[in-house]
Amino acid sequence: MTEKYIKENANDVVHHMEYNAERSHLIIPEYGRHLQKLIDQATAIEDREERNKAAKYIIQVMGSLNPHLRDVLDFQHKLWDQIFIMSDFRLDVDSPYPIPTREVINLKPDRLPYPQKNPKYRFYGNNIKYMIDVANKWEVDAIFNKREEFEAAIVAECNKRLSKWFEVSQLRTNITPPKALQQAIESKTKAVQEAQAAMQRKLVAEAEAQEKIAIAKGDSAKTIINANASALSMKIKQKELTPLYVEFIKWSAWDGKLPSTVAGSSGTLLNIK
Predict the structure, then answer these.
(1) Which of 75, 105, 81 lies closest to 93, judged by CA?
(2) Residue 263's beta-bridge partner residues?
(3) Measured between alpha carbons, how far is 20 from 180 in angstroms, rounded to an integer?
(4) What pLDDT shows up at residue 68?
(5) Using CA of residue 66, residue 70, residue 73, residue 76, what is the dihedral sign?
(6) Phi, psi at residue 269, to the nearest 5°?
(7) 201 and 140 co-located in one domain
(8) Which of 224, 223, 108, 207 is nearest to 199 (CA)?
(9) CA-closest candidate to residue 150, choices 127, 185, 187, 175
(10) Residue pair 90/43 in contact by the 8 Å Cβ criterion
């Protein structure tokens, strides 16, 4: 025989009602109060084997609450980390993954320094400042003498900074320098050209001087070689001129005729027959 239903006492219901202000803080609110209570109950189990079974059951429940995350890499590892976090690191079970600690979870990365440029006119932004920095790298005379290269550098910087929104294809800097500045630029350009011409003349003169030195060295080397050859030839001939060979040369050079006249100290001429 079933017991007859007894209507609850309204005072008892209100007395045992739980208010959120009196409940413990939810560490991960996305899982809800019921799962938080399951983890608290599993933490309170004294038998380790039963505690491990309860932890695995809770992991299955957590996975069923997020079925769309089952294909995510290391999904089970993430669930085991979350169950330890929700137990406030009081759950002592055998985990297939390294058990996280409070220090590792609360570890904060180093703060990244935010680049503060602090431009003088902030309403123009940093991009305009970057373009001005590129223009400041050019000298005044180079801007006017190499205007196309200067405009190309500004266009490249614009596209580098603003290519997400638009692209600059052409830029015309209609800058007209004052008369005094124009004269100064022309004077500087003329001085630079004269200096370059003087340097070129100097290089030509040095090259010609080197050429002359090389020719002189060649001539002197030739003279030395010829002199050495003559000295060697004479030395060889001296070795070959024996007295007998000298007499042979004399007899070879004689044509067989005796001299017709002989001059003496007395000045007398004799006819030899």
Answers:
(1) 81
(2) 269
(3) 82
(4) 77
(5) positive
(6) -105, 135
(7) no
(8) 207
(9) 175
(10) yes
End-of-domain residue from the set 80, 105, 130: 105
Q: Within a domain: residue 52?
A: yes
Of the CA atoms within 13 Å of residue 46, those in its CB half-sphere come to 0
Tokens of 222: 């030739």
Going along 140-221, which residue ranges are E strands? none
pLDDT for position 110: 86
**126's torsion region: left (phi>0), alpha (psi -120 to 50) or beta?**
alpha
- Amino acid at residue number 189: T
The total of structural domains in the chain comes to: 3
Read off the tokens for 212. Answer: 């002359």
Q: Are residues 43 and 93 in the same domain?
A: yes
The two three-digit tokens of residue 68, written as one number: 């769309």
Residue pair 31/86 in contact by the 8 Å Cβ criterion: yes
All residues at 6 or more sequence positions from 87 whose CB lies less than 8 Å from its CB, including other chains:
39, 40, 42, 43
Residue bearing tokens 């993430």: 78
pLDDT at 53: 93
Residue range(s) defining the domain that contains residue 58: 17-105
Nearest CA to 32 among 82, 102, 81, 73?
82
Pick out the chain residues at pLDDT < 50: 1, 266-273
- Identify the pLDDT of residue 190: 81
* Pick from 188, 169, 171: nearest CA to 180: 188
- The whole-number pLDDT of residue 254 equals 63
For residue 271, the model assigns a pLDDT of 47
